[in-house]
Amino acid sequence: MIYNELPSTQKPVSLLGLGSYETLCYMEYREIVKLVSVAFELGVTLFDVAHYPRAPHTEIVLTRALKDAGIPREDYSLITKVWGRDSESMQSQLDESLFRLGLDSVDGVLCYGPRWDVGDPVGHASEVAGLVESGRSTWWGGLNWSAHDVGLGIGALSQAGRPRPVLMQMKYNLARRSIVESPEYLNIWEDGHLLLQASDSLEGGILAGKVGSQRVLGRDPGAIRQSIQERIPELRKIAEDFNVTLAQLSLIYAATFPYTGNVLVGSSRPEQLQENAAAIDMVQSVGQAVRARLSDVIIEGHRLDVPPGTVVAPEDSPYAIDRGAGA
Length: 327
Fold this sequence. Notes:
Blueprint lengths: L2 E2 L8 E2 L1 E3 L10 H13 L4 E3 L9 H11 L8 E6 L7 H12 L4 E7 L8 H13 L3 E7 L3 H14 L6 E5 L11 H7 L5 E5 L25 H6 L1 H10 L4 H11 L3 E6 L4 H12 L1 H12 L33
Parallel strand pairs: 3-4, 3-10, 4-5, 5-6, 6-7, 7-8, 8-9, 9-10
Antiparallel strand pairs: 1-2
């Protein structure tokens, strides 16, 4: 396993992280305990969770499973999320999460980007920074912020000497590269104070070859998922040339981006985790060659994911235009 130290933190995190969206809620509890045990044995030390309306007990289940697996709290990093500033304060949201988690604080809290129609990027960033200053979280990060908004937030916090974001979770895979690799975001990555957490790197299983799966998938900004499916035969051939699986090819691509701090996967079976961890082990040996080979495999159309609750005119839809992030 490869480990990265997030900017301004002292606790390294594994390059591979285990998520919980649309996975744990379908598993028997003993299977969950086994899954987190196997993850930890493979070197995974970052676990990502949130309060999901479709699965409201996920936080409770994950922290109990980590405890029942015998994993010391100080040996892993736990990340949760707050969803914005609309219905209740971020502090109230995090306090409720901490209650469900049975903890006084978490290692990291991620906040969804400000709404584009009424958003206040500086105020948004300031409120999340306050969660760190209050001791509720060691550090904070973002979730699908535009480069424009995160730049404004970072600038204001830096000037005030307040905690800056250290991790940005974004949809990122070989088909969804236009936002993360845009000139605007590259300027932010190159500053050295923010790393990428790549989510949806397997596109809900499609980039692992699970075309036609009945699993509930995340949103499809830009409506490119059908185009991704049409390229699967070509991608399989490239994977065979490297003697890796399609899933491993996809993970190697995301993990080898120079500013990736963590790649999040939603595995539900130990053998999936073992395959994913093996991909991370190959990053240093074949990563650059994989990225070079995939450089010409372009799927156009990916857009920045819309913050929850955003109301915009059709011509301003994030599925048609990327505001401030450079499509």
